[in-house]
């Protein structure tokens, strides 16, 4: 049974169609790459699933719930930009998440924060960009959610930070959960993915298991992506 299912999902912004009749069914226990160039509809899809915007047409079900209070309790979302108050310290952020999310695992978050050798009293604005990105991901992944929606989690950080972020993602979700990683940096995430979804101009171009895709085409995901999205 699908943990996350969308049918006929359509969203327009003025005359621009960001998503066009998208059908997609995703199962628990998978890390899924939502892949496509900028403007393909990835962030729009994630915002719709997270209930931040409403579709013009179509339906969304997360463990049987339409977007709303029930679904939001199941979803942990990492936006594609910095979103935490810069004046807060790591300790304050831990308390904030613990108070706001009943499924937040403070000890797991604290362990990962200590692995960065962070001073808990240091304010977010005093940290490097890479450290802020890591801290945001740690807080997101420390929830015991059913669905994790990660929008461009490795964009704008150096390769070492990308490795840390991917290890954190893989090491901090249960078999009963689903992770969707939106990115255009295919080579960096390919070995972490179970399935891939190619979004092209607001439509699903491909949805397939990574191993099956390699066996069928004789190509890795990165090379196939470059062919499908060649200018």
Quick overview of this protein structure:
With 231 residues, this protein is of the alpha/beta class. Helix content is 34%, strand content 26%.
Query: Which stretches are low in confidence, meaning pLDDT under 50 for 5 or more residues running?
Result: none
Can you tell me the CATH class? Alpha Beta
Rg from alpha-carbon coordinates: 18 Å
Mean pLDDT: 91
Task: Give the fraction of residues assigned to helices.
Answer: 25-40%
Number of domains: 1
Biggest pleated sheet = 6 strands, mixed
Number of strands: 9
CATH architecture: 3-Layer(aba) Sandwich
Q: Helices and strands, in N-to-C order? A: EEEHEHEHHHEHEHEEHH
Remind me, CATH topology? Rossmann fold
Model description:
The structure is a single chain. The chain has 231 residues and is α/β, with parallel strands linked by helices. The chain has a single domain (4-83, 136-228), classed as 3-Layer(aba) Sandwich (Rossmann fold). It has nine helices and nine strands. Helix 6 (159-171) links the parallel strand 6 (147-151) and strand 7 (178-183). The protein is globular. The mean pLDDT is 91.
List its traits.
single chain, 231 residues, alpha/beta, Rossmann fold, six-stranded mixed beta sheet, three-stranded antiparallel beta sheet, 34% helix, globular
Secondary structure layout:
Layout: E1 4-13, E2 16-26, E3 30-35, H1 42-49, E4 57-62, H2 69-72, E5 75-78, H3 90-100, H4 106-115, H5 129-141, E6 147-151, H6 159-171, E7 178-183, H7 186-189, E8 195-200, E9 203-209, H8 210-217, H9 221-228
Parallel strand pairs: 3-7, 3-8, 5-6, 6-7
Antiparallel strand pairs: 1-2, 1-4, 8-9
